Amino acid sequence: MDSDARIDKHGKELSEQRFQLLKDIAKDLSEETSFPTSFDLLVRLRKALQDSNQTIDQIASLISLEPLIPLRLIHLANSVAYNRGTEVKDTKTAVQRLGLNNVRITAMAIAMNQLLHSKSMVLFGDIPQKLWDHSLRAGCAARVIAKQVSNFNPDEAMLAGVVHDLGAFYLLYRFSQYEELRIRPESAKYLVAKWHESIGLTLLQTLGIPEEIALASADHDTLRPVSASPSNLADIVYVSNALAGGMTDWLGVDEESDDKKNQDIQIQAEFEGLKPEIEAYTKEMRSLLA
Fold this sequence. Notes:
The protein is mostly helical.
């Protein structure tokens, strides 16, 4: 190990290091992007896709719990080869349009590629699992909110909720490739906190996700006004993220301002009546992983 790697960088050296990180990330995002998310889910998904008795509903439900695979399938369903004039925005419709064989081939290829990289995430302890659990709860909350207080497609809202922190998954994977961040997990956590929103938006757009869903992920951990009756998908994601505990819940660092903390408390109170349904649906989704 390079002994200099353990020496903290400051000033110009620190700026140069972060500039190089951003250059590497930009290059990565301009090419084919793949990285691990929930490893247990990927193993179960692989088995489910090999089971000829699985129905479209069952496969779509399982796929919807994994952030990257639904994006790829929706992008493929909206491609020239499969586009039928109506834009696909949810996993089940994508599965129906593509057919189970195409879904099996596509999802299997992605899952196997992700599993090859799974060991790198161990460096960050339980953060990846906590992030995955946060994403699942946010997705379930978004689905319930869409059904109860808005006219949005619940499946589309759930997808937006599940993928809203995709940038954090990507950065954890990317940072595991840098020795200086592997031995300084606190520095990596700081950069994830600062960059995950903007990188996530770019990543979703690069993956070809419908623009409305991509934009809904923007600034989800940044204080902004929000109504008790969300009027757009971005508001649903913002509220769902808060109901799932926000960034502090999974990253273990307190980067929120006092105003944001107070707003989160207010959101928790305003949506108190939906919590039993959100918890029940989250439990149901978790049962798919048992």
